[in-house]
Amino acid sequence: MLNESTTQFVAVWNVDAIAPVSQLNQAYMCLLSDNVTLAYPYDGRFWQVNFFNSCLFHRKHKINFLTGYDVPRNLMSGYYSVGGAFLVNVHAYRKCGWENEHFIGWGPEDVERYHRLEILGERIVRVPGSLYHLFHTRGINSGDYDNALSEITKREYSRVCSMMPEELRSYISTWNWVK
């Protein structure tokens, strides 16, 4: 889909992730003014919201059902999540390989993306505030359900993260989806 984009910037967003509009605007402004390749509309805190508050949000579309201080929730990936939502400069991101399509199924693609851009020296920013994950049931695709597939994705993650910048650029140049 990134190849189909006709805009300078794109948001890649999980359908179950919610951020306050002000944070989205702030991330967009970072892309506009700061020579940034990737901007997270949150500071790394990605909260799992309980079933009750997720239902309230679905019905009323009021962000305070997710952001209130008394809303029961827990961090999904500690204080430094890199998944759920991000905005990118399409042209700069293409040079970095866009999304790594060697990841099949569930896996470490979010953290690989972050480290790949970090290795390449790209500017990544975060804006203050949290991201919220709406409650939903989990199925077979929500984890390492296939050992062989899990090994492939983790091997790809390790391969990318062990490379030096020029080695990584050379590897990315072999990716058909960015040609």
| Strand order across the largest sheet | 1-6-3-7
Distance between the termini: 14 Å
Shape: globular
Which bin fits the share of residues in helices? 25-40%
Instruction: Tell me the β content.
Output: 15-25%
Mean residue pLDDT: 92
Major sheet? 4 strands, mixed
Along the chain, the helix and strand elements come as EEHEEHHEEHHEEHH
Helices, by number, come to: 7
**Low-confidence parts, pLDDT < 50 over ≥5 residues?**
none
Rg from alpha-carbon coordinates: 17 Å
Q: How many E strands?
A: 8
Structural class: alpha/beta
Structure description:
There is one protein chain. With 179 residues, the protein is of the alpha/beta class. Helix content is 37%, strand content 16%. It is built from seven helices and eight strands. The chain has helices at 21-33, 51-60, 64-67, 90-95, 109-119, 147-161, 165-172, and strands at residues 9-13, 17-18, 38-40, 46-49, 73-75, 85-89, 124-126, 131-133. The protein has a four-stranded mixed sheet, sandwiched between helices. Helix 5 (109-119) packs parallel to helix 6. The model has no long low-confidence stretch (mean pLDDT 92).
